[in-house]
Every structure is written in structure tokens, then in C-alpha cells.
Design brief:
- The structure is a single chain.
- The protein has about 210 residues and is an alpha+beta fold.
- Strand 2 and strand 3 form a beta hairpin.
- It has an eight-stranded mixed β-sheet with strand order 4-3-2-1-5-6-7-8.
- The protein has helices at about 10-25, 30, 45-50, 55-60, 70-75, 120-130, 195-210; strands at about 60-65, 85-90, 100-105, 110-120, 145-150, 155-160, 170-175, 190.
- The chain has one domain (about 10-210).
- The protein is built from seven helices and eight strands, in the order H-H-H-H-E-H-E-E-E-H-E-E-E-E-H.
- The mean pLDDT is about 85.
Length: about 210
């Protein structure tokens, strides 16, 4: 069965498309945009190199993001405690010509593009996203694609959500825990959501102690 990919609200899509050219300008000092990349050093792509004259085809794969806090994990609150954290989008296709943007929907600041990442990790994130279609689990049930982020652990996972509740939700980690201990999550392995949260809970307990 195909993986369901919910569409973002029009204002979210517009916020990404409208602000992306500013983030990719070469005179970022004037635009007050801090430059950064994901992974090994890489040249910031140009808008022309990303869109290649095909804006609709090259700004794609919108994914809604949800956030879990360390407190949620420590208290075993479950994935239902995850709160919406905006959307992320890919633009471009090809290594060195792909960026990943995040759009925030905070009521105080409105809907706005808050970050754009480029470099190898942006390309790898797109490839990992596209690779979900080949999972055996996808052929057996309907799932909605989401992204679950745990900022306190520097960890993200694709969240395969069963819209009917008939099947267990699944998690496919992408960004591995830094210096993860033996038994921690494995990148791009498929977990039931319950097992995924149980696996990372000890790391959350340790991280919370370090905070206090």
C-alpha cells in the first residue's frame, strides 16, 4: 500500500516558497540570515541550481513535524504527548543541490520559514524519506508519514502513523544519537513506536539529570 503523505496548509507552503530565495541569497549579511550546512562542508546552493526552472517539481515532500520533550519521555507519556512543531520541506533534487527547510507555525511569530539546511545530510534525509516506500511494513497497512523530533536528544525519526489505529505506529530513526551507548536505536531500523520510546528513555533520563 502507498505511504500517505498529508499535504500542508496553503499558508505553510507559501511561507516556504516565498522565503526560500532570501535564505539562499549570497549576500546573507544583508538578509540577516545565518549561513550553515548539515554534514561535511558544502557550498550553499543557488536558487537557480535547486529549482532548475521547475519550481513546482523541485519544491516537494512536505512532512509535518511533531516534538516530544525529555519530560514526555521520562514520564512515559507516549507518542500522544507529541505536539505539532511545524512542517519541513525539501527543495531540489541531487547531491549538492538539495536543501531542507523548516516552517514554524508558532502563534506569536505567525507562519514563517525559520531554517534551511544544505549539504550531504539534507540529501541523505531526502533519500531516507524516499526509501520508506520500500519497507515491507508499508505493503501491509496504511500509514501517514510524519516526523518525530526529540530536540533534547538531537534525535529525529520518521513516524509512520496508523490513521485508523488498527496497526501499531512505527518509528524509523534517521539522525542517530551522538555517542550512543550499546543498545541505543539503530539508524533506519524499523521499531514499533512503543519499543522506540522505551529504547531512548534511558538516554532521556540521563539527559534530564545533566540539565538539572
Amino acid at each position: 500500500m502507498p505511504l500517505n503523505k498529508p499535504s500542508p496548509p496553503p499558508d505553510v507552503q507559501e511561507a516556504f516558497s516565498t522565503a526560500l530565495p532570501t535564505f539562499l541569497r549570497q549576500d546573507n549579511d544583508a538578509a540577516r540570515v545565518a549561513e550553515g550546512f548539515a554534514g561535511t562542508p558544502s557550498a550553499i546552493p543557488t536558487l537557480a541550481g535547486i529549482d532548475n526552472g521547475r519550481l513546482d517539481a523541485f519544491r516537494h515532500n512536505a512532512q509535518q513535524m511533531f516534538m516530544l520533550t525529555l519530560k514526555d519521555l521520562v514520564n512515559s507519556a507516549g507518542v500522544r504527548a507529541a505536539s505539532p512543531a511545524g512542517w519541513r520541506f525539501f527543495a531540489g533534487q541531487g547531491q549538492g543541490a538539495t536543501v531542507l527547510g523548516r516552517v514554524s507555525q508558532k502563534s506569536r511569530d505567525g507562519t514563517k520559514l525559520t531554517a534551511v539546511y544544505y549539504g550531504n545530510r539534507a540529501w541523505e534525509a531526502l533519500q531516507a524519506s524516499l526509501g520508506l516506500e520500500s519497507l515491507a511494513e508499508i505493503r501491509q497497512a496504511d500509514f501517514d508519514l510524519r516526523v518525530l523530533t526529540i530536540p533534547g536528544l538531537n534525535l529525529e525519526a520518521f513516524w509512520l502513523h496508523s490513521p485508523t489505529g488498527e496497526y501499531e505506529d512505527l518509528a524509523v530513526p534517521f539522525t542517530p544519537l551522538p555517542d550512543q551507548a550499546a543498545g541505543a536505536v539503530q539508524q533506519q531500523a524499523v521499531y514499533t513506536m512503543a519499543n522506540f520510546l522505551a529504547t531512548i528513555r534511558p538516554a532521556a533520563l540521563l539527559a534530564q539529570r545533566n540539565v538539572y
